[in-house]
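User: structure tokens for this one?
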Amino acid sequence: MPLPRFFAELRHLPGLVRLSHSVFALPFALAALALACGGMPSLHLLGLVVAAVVFARTAGMAFNRLADAAFDARNPRTAARHLPSGRVSRYTAWGIVLLSCAAFVGVCARLNGLALALAPAALAVVLGYSLTKRFTRWSHFVLGMALGIAPLGAWVAARATLADAAPWLLACAVVFWVAGFDIVYATQDADFDRASGLHSLATALGVERALRLVPWLHGAMLAALATVGPVSGLGWAYYAGLISVLISILWETRLVARREDREIQAAFLRANALASFGYLGAVLLGLATR
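Assistant:
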């Protein structure tokens, strides 16, 4: 494909990979980084961690669009996306995947040896998620793992180790949180997915039974986040900050109960962005007052 066309189609990059959705994993990565550093990291380290999260997510999302392009074209809800509509070619999408993967590995190489050694495994999870919907109902948890890598990676960036408990608690919290809201999101396509041979808990259990799991998953998320406090020596201010996370989860639950697609979109975007940034604020409060 001619390079001019590739660069011309790059203007669609933010929409293609839903760059705004980086707000889900990034605040948890920054929270882990702050905990690992015991406060504010250097600007150099902060920049590298932000770049790593954005490059990994861009690669994963562009690959997801490639993997799902044929299904998206047949689904009325997704037919207008960039690949089915022809606004972005498969060549451009593949170029974005490969360049983002290379950039992610390059950033990891700048961090430390452990980060570089773990980079292929991280990419395997981030890219592999898109294929799991073809054979397992548990794909929501694989997506959670893909985002849960972010706090683990930030900890490795700062300390070059995964021997501490805090990053694993954060990763578990992200897995439960993401699995919960992805179950909600998947309910929009339950009928289409079932007819197309795609798997989710909504297709396996039915929408109502699948949604009953969500409060339990979000409860497990909050329990993991609460445990981070004593493990990291954080005091009352941290727990006060967690109230914003609880409010966002309750707001999402209320929106989902209305069972309207536009309400689900609001839950997926605004409520979860509030949860992630609220948690980052809780960590910064806890570190500032301990």
